[in-house]
Amino acid sequence: QVQLQESGGGSVQSGGSLKLSCAASGDTRCMAWFRQAPGKEREGVASVNMPSQTPSYADSVKGRFSISQNNDQITLQMNKLKPEDTAMYYCAVKMSWGSCLAPVGYTYWGRGTQVTVSS
């Protein structure tokens, strides 16, 4: 059983910055942040392959978001935020192999934290 503790999020104006953090208890293979906006499918935002410390990013956030790893915690620094980044953001963990950015095989999910970007 893996426990996830999320923090961060909030409201900001377009162009602003926010930071999300997620700490996991136990060994993991992938840790990632996903987001889901009302009426849209859940999508991968950024992930880390924990053993290799390799990050991955969705095309929509490349150059604006940065994910970092510190032991069993990941931090997502979100810069140059846009209104289209508004969504509920979820931290997730999986133990299986495969793409860390795809929302497949993730066993543990956080409760989510809201990010709202106003224009």
Can you offer a commentary on this structure?
- This protein is mainly β and 119 residues long.
- The strands form 2 sheets. Strands 2, 4, 5, 6, 9, 10 and 11 form a 7-stranded mixed β-sheet that branches.
- It is globular.
- The mean pLDDT is 95.
Report, as a whole number of angstroms, the end-to-end distance.
40 Å
Strands, count: 11
Q: Which word captures the global form?
A: globular
What is the rounded Rg? 13 Å
Pick out the low-confidence regions: none
Number of helices: 0
Our estimate of the beta-strand percent is: over 45%
User: Could you describe the largest sheet, including whether it forms a barrel?
Assistant: 7 strands, mixed
Percentage of residues in helical conformation: under 10%
Structural class by sheet pairing and helices: mainly beta
Which H/E pattern describes the elements? EEEEEEEEEEE
**Roughly what is the average pLDDT, rounded to an integer?**
95
Give me some keywords for this one:
119 residues, mainly beta, 7-stranded mixed β-sheet, 4-stranded antiparallel β-sheet, globular
How do you describe this structure in short?
This protein is an all-beta fold and 119 residues long. Helices cover 0% and strands 54% of the residues. It has strands spanning 3-8, 10-13, 18-25, 30-36, 43-49, 54-57, 65-70, 73-78, 87-94, 108-109, 113-118.
Helix/strand layout:
Blueprint: E1 3-8, E2 10-13, E3 18-25, E4 30-36, E5 43-49, E6 54-57, E7 65-70, E8 73-78, E9 87-94, E10 108-109, E11 113-118
Parallel strand pairs: 2-11
Antiparallel strand pairs: 1-3, 3-8, 4-5, 4-9, 5-6, 7-8, 9-10, 9-11
